[in-house]
Design a protein that fits this description.
This protein is of the alpha/beta class. The chain is built from 6 helices and 10 strands. Strands 4-3-2-5-6-7-8 form a 7-stranded mixed β-sheet, sandwiched between helices. Strands 1-9-10 form a 3-stranded antiparallel β-sheet. Helix 1 packs parallel to helix 6. It is globular, with a radius of gyration of 16 Å. The two termini are 17 Å apart. The mean pLDDT is 97. It binds 5-O-phosphono-beta-D-ribofuranosylamine.
């Protein structure tokens, strides 16, 4: 049975989860200056206080929250706290933009079909933490980024969109990572806007944003 998620007529409410620099978050913040973007960030969460994107969020006037796994008795308690705080912002969509933690069953069941992640490789190749380095080591000529609906696996959920970039002969991990990130940011902004305007449908492993 396909899962159809309709647009919110008053604009798609988005919570963004981060762990790092927040360049994807910055791109989403910039995009919402445009009236036809259709989505607005209602809060930014992180798993560590050192995530530089938190300051970016505060500068943009966005509410922020941090839940560190080490502050909880176990991972399930962390997952529950993260779920409850995220849910308190009533998001239509939760975007993992460089959030370096796998969420648990509480989170996944609270936001079915509404939790997406951007990964810096062309899945199903090179899942995990080192996508660009693994792609370079393998010797592929095309790399890229994948936006997908998160499921209980690691980088294994239904794919919303992919973008490819060339691998150059003189690439280092840094240069390839940066080329992927530029394409990844543009893809994320475009797809979140499409989701806001049209809603989305998940039919097995296939996702449609129209
Ligand atoms: C992205 O490239 C994402 O694919 C990876 O981490 C990066 C996050 O970058 N998992 P930023 O924090 O949005 O700059």
């Amino acid at each position: 049975m396909p899962r159809r998620i309709l647009p919110n007529p008053s604009g798609l409410r988005v919570v963004v989860l981060i762990s790092g620099a927040g360049s994807n978050l910055a791109a989403l913040v910039a995009a919402q200056q445009s009236a036809d973007h259709g989505a607005r960030i209602v809060a930014v969460g992180a798993d560590r206080h050192s995530a530089a994107g938190l300051q970016l969020a505060r500068n943009a006037g966005l509410p922020t929250f941090v839940h560190r796994i080490s502050d909880y008795s176990d991972r399930e308690a962390w997952d529950l706290a993260l779920t409850q705080e995220t849910a308190s912002h009533r998001p239509d969509l939760v975007v993992s933009a460089g959030f370096l933690k796998l969420v648990g069953a509480h989170f996944l069941s609270r936001f079915p079909g509404r939790y997406i992640n951007t990964h810096n490789a062309l899945l199903p190749s090179f899942p995990g933490m080192h996508g660009p380095a693994d792609a370079l080591a393998y010797g592929v000529k095309i790399a890229g980024a994948t936006l997908f609906v998160v499921d209980a696996g690691v980088d294994s959920g239904p794919i919303l969109a992919q973008v490819a970039v060339p691998v150059h002969d003189d690439d280092t991990e840094d240069s390839l990572t940066e080329r992927i990130k530029q394409a990844e940011r543009a893809q994320l902004v475009e797809q979140v806007s499409r989701m806001a305007r049209h809603g989305w449908t998940i039919h097995g492993r296939r996702v449609f944003t129209r």
